[in-house]
Amino acid sequence: MRYKRILLKLSGEALMGEQQYGIDPKRLEEYAEDIKSVVDKGVEVAIVIGGGNIFRGLSGASQGMDRVQGDHMGMLATVINGLALQSALELKGVETRLQSAIKINEVAEPFIRRRAIRHLEKGRVVIFGGGTGNPYFTTDSAAVLRAIEIKADVILKGTRVDGIYTSDPEKDKSATKFDSISFNDVITKGLKVMDTTAFTLSQENELPIVVFDMNTRGNLMKIVSGEKIGTVVNV
Ligand code: UDP
């Protein structure tokens, strides 16, 4: 296997599948199967999940809601998604722990770095909910932060697009995909991989990011076993 310990970032929106809102049970099951396949190969898997399928603080703020209040709702949304993913994984027989950045002890363990690492060493999938626990951040920042804390080898950012393109491939048919690109080139070319806070944190800590299409079955396994899928961002 190419990687021993991975941090998989899944957006909340990805969980919607074909729906406009919420969680598509079929999509959830597919993700659980793909994740199980790499766990079965002995790869240590931590997951940060977003909440955009349920609530985003910014959209609350645009409708007049207090931003911090909205962000708290967004963080809770990520815990809901974490619970759903946990349940889908356990139905497949994968042992999991959900750790939350906001205290919600009846529902999830608190985030404790050493305990998270211990779970990973025992082969459990650790799902990090609640983002960073702070308003004004995103789950991309949470993904980078947790990846650094648990010393993951790489962040695998699962998206709808199969990598980083010269321009938005959904709008520009002439866009071409990068197989690999440096952090600096992403910045100078003005490309969008993650929000700036998350991206800079990754760059400063020389933590590679692989952007790939998580909706194609088997892609996760291909990346983990070393196939060149998606785009790698590296120093
Ligand atoms: N959020 C937050 N702090 C964090 C992570 C998330 O306040 O550290 C809130 C924020 O309101 C955000 C929402 O949770 O809009 C959902 O997270 P995100 O937008 O990152 O989810 P994704 O786009 O991955 O679905």
Automatic annotation (TrEMBL):
Entry EC no(s): 2.7.4.22
GO cellular component: cytoplasm
Subcellular location: Cytoplasm
Start and end residues of each Aspartate/glutamate/uridylate kinase domain: 4-213
Binding site for ATP: K9, L10, S11, G12, G52, R56, T159, Y165, D168
Organism from which the protein derives: Flagellimonas lutaonensis
Described function: Catalyzes the reversible phosphorylation of UMP to UDP.
GO molecular function: ATP binding; UMP kinase activity
Regulation: Inhibited by UTP.
Positions of UMP binding: G51, D71, T132, G133, N134, P135, Y136, F137, T138, T139
Catalytically driven reaction(s): UMP + ATP = UDP + ADP
UniProt entry keywords in alphabetical sequence: ATP-binding, Cytoplasm, Kinase, Nucleotide-binding, Pyrimidine biosynthesis, Transferase
Assembly and oligomerization: Homohexamer.
NCBIfam families, per database record: pyrH_bact (TIGR02075)
Pathway: Pyrimidine metabolism; CTP biosynthesis via de novo pathway; UDP from UMP (UMPK route): step 1/1
Pfam families: AA_kinase
Main location per the UniProt record: cytoplasm
EC category name: transferase
Gene: pyrH
Family in the record: Belongs to the UMP kinase family.
Name under which the protein is recorded: Uridylate kinase
